[in-house]
Design brief:
Pfam families: Y_phosphatase
CATH class: Alpha Beta
GO molecular function: protein tyrosine phosphatase activity
Helix content: 25-40%
Number of helices: 10
Structural class: alpha/beta
Strand content: 15-25%
Number of strands: 12
Domain Tyrosine-protein phosphatase: 158-411
Protein name: Protein tyrosine phosphatase non-receptor type 20
Order of helices and strands: HEEHHHHEEHEEEEEEEHEHHH
Biased composition (Basic and acidic residues): 1-15, 42-54
Distance between the termini: 32 Å
Radius of gyration: 21 Å
């Protein structure tokens, strides 16, 4: 079947169309794919289409973000128009077809206090992925690779690959995530980090639902932290993880609210004038830029106990639809390439909502893009298999897996049209 037919199939996933539980103060248990208790040792045996609670926006904890999640005004019949108070103004998102999705879409501080970080022209250039060596021999190798991938997409090979990945029995323990004291730190009961790859916090190795992921391709290692979208109760833990691992880039592949459902609690300040005050950290928004497909935010994160300041760039992709995968690969290619260009120190932190679906797609295509630039071979199935050995369920659905191939095919076809 064609890629378009493949994407047309209805697939429910955490990063797509299902609701998710957010406010843990209103319940005792987390949503799961099964009504039975989750095994302590093999959570991955459960299917990952969890039954979730749909919290109403009225239950969203009220704090500095209350203006952002305010209901539309009575006078505004246009759903893309939201109201705000204080240092904010009524604003319209650049795309009239997008629905309101929290501060990532509808609201922004006054633009007069910011300066441009990157131009659309620069992003366009970044998306022109070209190998370091592009002689006749390399062009022939790329043509052969393209033919092989096109053959796969024209048959059921990709589906068979994904099913083979699904059937792999990966032994791993989830004891830390299942401890009673840590259960409320998980967005989903059956999406937990392996004990062997979880990211420890501090000297006491406290828990956060995050996994170290190292992908090796052609002798080159790519290092990431894959994590869930922070809950209100885990924002301090999230920033502790970012600072302790000296991370300078956060790739966020979700909007805060999608389809009226909370996907990620906003863990950053919404005003250039007022920092976000946390127990151990103070987060300043220094600059931001709204682009066609993503938002750039520049933060200074200060550790209160030491006064140490850390610069972090957050890149929030805003064009992933509530259902399925992006209709066009172009915007995601620009996003991934800009994230790679921005990366300087530590592992790159990547999250969506559950931290496995869209996050897995990002990691996979980032590695492939780097391989193309370095004239290296790559194997998408092997890359995904490596990820899944370190965090269960990475690249969660067959349409996400197919989207990885769609993106790579687009890059290779464009490459062969270059002079």
């Amino acid at each position: 079947s064609s890629p378009r037919d493949f994407r047309a199939e209805s697939v429910k996933d955490y990063e797509g169309n299902d609701s998710e539980a957010e406010d843990l103060n209103f319940r005792e248990t987390l949503p799961s794919s099964s009504k039975k208790n989750t095994p302590r040792s093999k959570v991955f045996e459960n299917k990952v289409n969890s039954e979730k609670v749909k919290p109403s926006l009225r239950n969203f904890p009220r704090n500095d973000y209350e203006d952002v999640f305010e209901e539309p005004s009575e006078s505004g019949s246009d759903p893309s128009m939201w109201t705000a108070r204080g240092p904010f103004r009524r604003d319209r998102w650049s795309s009239e077809n997008e629905e309101p999705a929290g501060p990532s879409q509808a609201l922004s501080p006054l633009l007069s206090d910011t300066h441009k970080i990157v131009s659309e022209g620069e992003l366009h250039q970044l998306a022109q992925i070209r190998p370091l060596i592009f002689n006749f021999h390399e062009q022939t190798a790329i043509k052969d690779c393209l033919k092989m991938l096109e053959k796969k997409t024209g048959t059921y090979d990709i589906m068979q690959e994904f099913m083979a990945l699904e059937l792999k029995n990966l032994p791993g323990e989830f004891n830390s995530g299942n401890q009673p004291s840590n259960r409320e730190k998980n967005r989903y009961r059956d999406i937990l980090p392996y004990d062997s790859t979880r990211v420890p916090l501090g000297k006491s190795k406290d828990y956060i639902n995050a996994s170290y992921i190292r992908i090796v391709n052609c002798g080159q290692e790519y290092f990431y932290i894959a994590t869930q979208g922070p809950l209100l109760s885990t924002i301090d833990d999230f920033w502790q993880m970012v600072l302790e691992n000296n991370c300078n880039v956060i790739a966020m592949i979700t909007r805060e609210i999608e389809g009226g459902v909370i996907k990620c609690y906003p863990y950053w300040p919404i005003s250039l004038k007022k920092p976000l005050e946390l127990k151990h950290f103070r987060v300043f928004l220094e600059n931001y830029q709204i682009l066609q497909c993503f938002i750039i935010r520049m933060f200074q994160v200060v550790e209160k106990s030491t006064g140490t300041s850390h610069s972090v760039k957050q890149l929030q992709f805003t064009k992933w639809p509530d259902h399925g995968t992006p209709a066009s690969a172009d915007s995601f290619i620009k996003y991934v390439r800009y994230a790679r260009k921005s990366h300087l120190t530590g592992p790159m932190v990547v999250h969506c909502s559950a931290g496995i679906g869209r996050t897995g797609v990002f990691l996979c295509v980032d590695v492939v893009f780097c391989a193309i630039v370095k004239n290296c071979s790559f194997n998408i199935m092997d890359i995904v298999a490596q990820m899944r050995e370190q965090r269960s369920g990475m690249v969660q659905t067959k349409e996400q897996y197919h989207f990885c191939y769609d993106i790579v095919l687009k890059v290779l076809r464009k490459l062969l049209t270059l002079d």
